[in-house]
């Protein structure tokens, strides 16, 4: 942590392709190349950006969301699969770390999943949002504690949470206790209105101060045409505007560069990693400022599984009715011989 180094990062505010998951992936690959061309070593995308965030679930009643929900299944990402191979190859080709939000399909369920690709293209973290928020609970399943930890990457130690997970202080504390250096926050953007952008800013700046780390946050963007495609109702369309706060924050809670709140773009900033130690010298929330003998966190980091199978006894094949096996023939022969002997005894000696 005391090593003097500078890390260049990029936070991408971008619109998905609401008609095609493949189209959104193409936008991701182009943005990775553009950010890498600007010298970024870390590229961060918005929450569930591939294929798109389920904006429809925020403005439509559940009874009318079936078709869009099924379409989300059709375009969702299987891990590993073609999408992760393409993004991993781009990370490797450009030598960058990529954090991507996806709708992950696992058989019959969807999950809000964050993927961290290291600069060699490997996936070093796959975590699922532990509690989907409000309307999202009709769309995604719940994640587990297996992803609530930081990972070492080419740019430093990264932790990640999505959207209102930042309102779960114990989830944030788990990453603090694992000594994250760069915290990646992902929000949907184009949602709720300006108040959402204000709340995002307060949340990520506070986390930076409390964790003593950098925060790189990316939010999505919808064009007016895309908003109209989600709902034709003007009143509901207003609920799909604002809420954008793509930002990069220092361990001292300050914006490293001005945030992006409108339109598409890529924020790029150089992170002076020495600021982490400067902040923690004064306040290390999981070190000298902690009181673990009074307050501590217990984390169940086991992956959740729907079935735990105990060892079963060896199965003995059951022969078909009327079929004779060698063992059965031998047993039958022994049984027949014993029966004949008993009959002979009962009859007595021949006369």
TrEMBL record:
Signal peptide positions on this chain: none
Q: What is the protein name for this chain? A: Aliphatic nitrilase
- Which residue range or ranges hold the CN hydrolase domain? 7-273
Q: Which family does it belong to?
A: Belongs to the carbon-nitrogen hydrolase superfamily. Nitrilase family.
What organism is the protein native to? Oharaeibacter diazotrophicus
For this UniProt entry, the molecular function terms from Gene Ontology, in alphabetical order, are: nitrilase activity
Q: What is the lineage of its organism?
A: Bacteria, Pseudomonadati, Pseudomonadota, Alphaproteobacteria, Hyphomicrobiales
Q: Name one Pfam family in it.
A: CN_hydrolase
